């Protein structure tokens, strides 16, 4: 395993530990959610917020990538003359 993969794995493990600790600490805390007007667990609200943010970010990246691919494609294909025209010698001026 190379150094970069080891550091990425360590970062993911530490992130998972911190997220789990945060979820357990705030498990019993409730917050009032504006659109629903009822109390919900804080960890659930934060988790749904992150999920919605990831979905919106993924959609934005997908749309930007699609627009870039459309801009990179030429509108008209390159026209290649037939082989018979390529091999025919050009006539000189008389």
What is this entry, summarized?
The chain has helices at residues 3-25, 42-72, 83-87; strands spanning 30-33, 38-41. The protein has 94 residues and is mainly alpha-helical.
Protein traits:
single chain, 94 residues, mainly alpha, two-stranded antiparallel ribbon
Task: Characterise this structure.
The chain is built from three helices and two strands; from the N terminus they run H-E-E-H-H. 0% of the residues are buried. Helix content is 63%, strand content 9%. It has a two-stranded antiparallel ribbon. A hairpin with a 4-residue loop joins strand 1 and strand 2. It is elongated. It has helices at 3-25, 42-72, 83-87; strands at 30-33, 38-41. The protein has 94 residues and is mostly helical.
């Amino acid at each position: 395993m190379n150094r970069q993969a080891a550091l990425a794995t360590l970062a993911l493990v530490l992130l998972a530990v911190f997220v789990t600790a945060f979820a357990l600490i705030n498990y019993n805390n409730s917050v009032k959610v504006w659109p629903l007007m009822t109390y919900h667990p804080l960890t659930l609200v934060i988790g749904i917020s992150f999920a919605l943010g990831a979905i919106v970010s993924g959609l934005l990246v997908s749309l930007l990538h699609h627009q870039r691919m459309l801009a990179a494609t030429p509108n008209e294909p390159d026209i290649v003359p037939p082989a018979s025209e390529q091999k025919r010698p050009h006539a000189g001026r008389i």
